[in-house]
Design brief:
- With about 130 residues, the chain is of the alpha+beta class.
- The protein is about 45% helix and about 30% strand.
- It is built from six helices and five strands; from the N terminus they run ααβββαααββα.
- The protein starts with a helix and ends with a helix.
- About 10% of the residues are buried.
């Protein structure tokens, strides 16, 4: 009988420690930013942070552009929103978040004009399904 009670208590303890998808997403975003940011991801592109807005279920990626890609006209000509949407649709690592219907926001800032937002795109479930 004592073994059964210990087993039940252990099972309850294990299930009580599991986090929700929102908690997991917020934790992973915070850990990623702390460990890896800022980090260059392509020539002239640096990821500054990753965060999660629990109230809107939005994963937010902030980048800084530099050198030749730090150009609003160049960004407009290349239609980055459509390219980003295709990448999001094909991203298997995002499957749990897409299945949960989360939003994804990408924000690009200028290095030349410190703090100036060059481009922003937000994708909702209706966009990537």
């Amino acid at each position: 009988m004592k073994k059964i009670i210990v087993f039940i208590m252990a099972c309850l303890f294990i299930t009580a420690c599991q986090e929700t998808l929102e908690e997991r997403c917020a934790r992973e975003a915070k850990e990623y930013s702390k460990k890896h940011c800022p980090a260059p991801i392509a020539k002239g592109v640096t990821i500054d942070s990753m965060s999660f807005d629990v109230s809107t279920h939005t994963l937010i990626y902030s980048y800084t552009l530099s050198d030749l890609v730090d150009d609003t006209a160049l960004i407009r000509r290349n239609n980055p929103k459509e390219q980003m949407l295709q990448q999001l649709k094909n991203a298997t690592a995002m499957k749990p978040y897409k299945d949960a219907g989360y939003n994804f926001r990408y924000i690009y800032y200028s290095t030349k004009n410190k703090g100036a937002k060059l481009f922003e795109a937000t994708f909702q479930e209706k966009d990537y399904r």
